[in-house]
Write a structure and sequence with these properties.
Helix content is 52%, strand content 18%. By secondary structure, it is of the alpha/beta class. Strands 2-1-3-4-5 form a 5-stranded parallel beta sheet, sandwiched between helices. Bound molecules: adenosine-5'-triphosphate and magnesium ion (MG).
Length: 386
C-alpha cells in the first residue's frame, strides 16, 4: 500500500511537533507554520491530506483550505477549531471546502481515527473516479467497435445485394442484347437505304434509341462486372448538351406540373462522353422532379471555375436531411419505397468520377437541394480543349 503524505499547518510549533510524532509512524508528515507556507508546500509535494489550525495570523485555516481546494481539489482538508470559530468552520464544511472539523482540544486517539477514516474516504472516492474513467473509456471503445461492426455488416449486406442484383442483371442484359440485335443494325440499314428519306428518318430514330439502350446497358454493366463504365470521349458543346437534356425532360416535367429553367450560357467546349453526361443530368432532373411538389421549379445552371465546368441542378423541393446527405450516394439507398431503386445517384457518381470529376449535394431541408457536378474541361486527362 502506498504511504500517504499529510501536511500539517499551524503557527504553534508545539502542535506541529505533537502531530508529527503522533502520525509519522504510519504517514509521511510535512509541516508549515503559516497559510502562505502551507500553499507553497502544497505546490511542491504530492499531498493527500492537509490538517490546518483555523486561527493563524495572516490567513485563517479555512481561507487557506479554500485556496487549496482550487489548486488540488482531491486533497482532503481537515480544520482544527475552537468553539469561538465554530460558525465559519461549519459553513466551510457545508460548502464542501472542508471535509470535516475537529474541536480543540483534541485527543490523540480521536485524531488517529479521524485521519484514518478521512484517508479511507478519499481513497474510496479516488477509486470510484478511476473506475468511472475506465468505464467511460471502455464504453467509448465498445461504441467504436459497435460502429465498425455495423459498417462491416452494412458493407456485407450491400455487397450481397449487389451480387444478387448483378447476377440477375447479367442475365437480363444478355437477353436484352439478343433482342436488340436488329435495332443495333439501324445505322447499317440507314447507310444502305440512304436514298429513302422517310425510311432514313425512321432508322435514325431507331438508331438514337439504340444509343440510349446501349449506353444504359453499359452504365449498369459496372454492377455486373465491377468494371468502370467505358467512356466515348469527344469535344462537346455543353450548351447544346444541356439544351438537349432540358428538351428531353421538359415534356415529362410539364406533365407533372414542374418547370425546368436553364440559365443562359453560350457555347462551351468540354471533352466528355455526351451520352453519359446527359444521363447524369437527366437522373438529377428526374430526382428533382420527384422531390418537388406540384408547381415545383428546377434550375439547370452552369459556370466555369478554373479548368472545370460546374453543372448544377437545383430545386425547391423537400431537400435532403443531414443524416441522409452521405447515404444518398450508396447503391440501393432510396426514400421512395417501391418507386425507387436507389441506383440513380450511384450511377451519376460513377459516370462523373469516370470523367475525373466530382459530384456533391447541398441542401436546406424543407427548402430544396442542389446537386453539383464538376467536370474537367479537358476530360479525364484534364487538358482543356484548345
Ligand atoms: N433533388 C433531391 N431532393 C431530395 N432528395 C433527393 C434528391 N435527389 C435524390 N434524393 C434522395 O436520394 C435518394 C437516392 O436517389 P437515387 O436517384 O440514387 O435513387 P432513387 O431516386 O430513390 O431511385 P432510382 O434508382 O429510381 O433513381 C432518393 O431516394 C432521395 O431520398
Ligand atoms: Mg433517382
Amino acid at each position: 500500500m502506498t504511504r500517504h503524505t499529510i501536511l500539517v499547518v499551524d503557527d504553534e510549533v508545539n502542535t506541529l511537533q505533537v502531530m508529527k510524532s503522533l502520525l509519522e509512524d504510519e504517514y509521511t508528515v510535512l509541516t508549515a507554520e503559516s497559510g502562505q507556507e502551507g500553499l507553497e508546500r502544497l505546490a511542491q509535494a504530492d499531498i493527500d491530506m492537509v490538517i490546518a489550525d483555523q486561527r493563524m495570523p495572516g490567513m485563517s485555516g479555512v481561507e487557506m483550505l479554500v485556496a487549496m481546494k482550487r489548486l488540488k481539489p482531491d486533497c482532503i482538508r481537515i480544520v482544527l477549531t475552537a468553539y469561538a470559530d465554530f460558525d465559519a468552520v461549519v459553513l466551510a464544511c457545508n460548502q464542501g471546502d472542508v471535509y470535516r472539523f475537529v474541536l480543540k482540544p483534541w485527543n490523540p486517539d480521536e485524531m488517529e481515527i479521524v485521519v484514518r477514516q478521512a484517508l479511507e474516504h478519499r481513497d474510496a472516492v479516488r477509486a470510484r473516479e478511476e473506475l468511472l474513467v475506465r468505464l467511460e473509456r471502455q464504453n467509448r471503445e465498445l461504441e467504436k467497435a459497435w460502429a465498425e461492426l455495423k459498417e462491416a455488416q452494412d458493407t456485407m449486406v450491400r455487397s450481397e445485394k449487389l451480387a444478387a442484383v448483378g447476377k440477375l442483371a447479367g442475365g437480363m442484359l444478355h437477353e436484352l442484347k439478343n433482342q436488340l440485335f436488329l435495332v443495333m443494325m439501324a445505322d447499317d440499314f440507314k447507310k444502305r437505304y440512304w436514298y429513302d428519306e422517310e425510311l432514313s428518318h425512321f432508322l435514325e430514330s431507331i438508331g438514337g434509341l439504340n444509343h440510349i439502350v446501349t449506353d444504359m446497358l453499359d452504365g449498369y454493366r459496372h454492377y455486373v462486372s465491377g468494371r468502370r463504365p467505358t467512356l466515348i470521349l469527344a469535344e462537346e458543346d455543353i450548351e447544346k448538351l444541356t439544351a438537349d437534356v432540358v428538351a428531353l425532360t421538359s415534356s415529362a416535367a410539364y406533365a407533372l406540373n414542374r418547370t425546368i429553367e436553364q440559365s443562359v450560357l453560350g457555347p462551351l467546349l468540354v471533352v466528355c462522353d455526351r451520352h453519359k453526361i446527359k444521363r447524369v443530368l437527366t437522373n438529377l432532373i428526374r430526382n428533382a422532379c420527384e422531390a418537388t411538389p406540384e408547381g415545383g421549379k428546377i434550375v439547370l445552371g452552369r459556370r466555369v471555375e478554373g479548368d472545370e465546368v460546374i453543372l448544377e441542378v437545383s430545386d425547391n423541393g423537400s431537400g435532403v436531411s443531414p443524416e441522409n446527405q452521405q447515404r444518398v450516394w450508396e447503391p440501393f439507398f432510396t426514400t421512395k419505397g417501391d418507386a425507387g431503386l436507389g441506383l440513380g445517384l450511384d450511377l451519376c457518381r460513377s459516370f462523373v468520377e469516370g470523367h475525373g470529376g466530382g459530384i456533391s449535394c447541398s441542401s436546406v431541408p424543407g427548402e430544396g437541394a442542389t446537386f453539383t457536378v464538376r467536370l474537367p474541361l479537358g476530360g479525364p486527362g484534364r487538358i482543356p480543349p484548345a
